[in-house]
Design a protein that fits this description.
Helix content: 40-55%
Number of helices: 6
Structural class: mainly alpha
Order of helices and strands: HHHEHEHH
Number of domains: 1
Distance between the termini: 16 Å
Strand order of the largest sheet: 1-2
Largest sheet: 2 strands, parallel
CATH superfamily: Alpha/Beta hydrolase fold, catalytic domain
């Protein structure tokens, strides 16, 4: 949690209205540009994601569960968390309106607040 606090607030808005630090985003892009995954590894990862289906087991989760998602997430749409909410008992969903997939980078204070509410409840 100290990581999120150390990031401070950000004020630059992206196309979706999500706030992101330009410097932080530039460093992430630089790191990911040199951290390329081999094609066969990527294909294996996609095959695993497509082949995984645990929907019928979600109702057996007994522990309190929470997802945090960004309203503008183009990678894992917020609707996926709605499906989880329908099937997992004792489930909380935190939807960060002005955020995308990297909600924890674009909205660190809101992310931290959601985590603290959930973990300290």
């Amino acid at each position: 949690m100290a990581y999120f606090r150390s990031r401070g607030s950000t004020s630059d808005a992206n196309a979706n209205g999500a706030s992101t630090s330009c410097d932080l985003l530039a460093r992430l892009i630089e790191k990911k540009s040199t951290d390329l995954q081999p094609d066969d590894g990527y294909r294996g990862q996609i095959a695993a994601v497509i082949g995984h289906d645990a929907l019928d087991r979600l109702s057996s989760i007994e522990q309190p569960t929470m997802t945090i998602t960004g309203r503008h997430d183009a990678v894992i749409p917020a609707e996926n968390s709605e499906i989880l909410r329908e099937h997992i008992p004792n489930f909380e969903m935190e939807l960060i309106a002005a955020a995308g997939h990297l909600f924890f980078m674009g909205q660190p204070e809101l992310t931290l607040a959601a985590l603290e509410r959930f973990l300290l409840a």
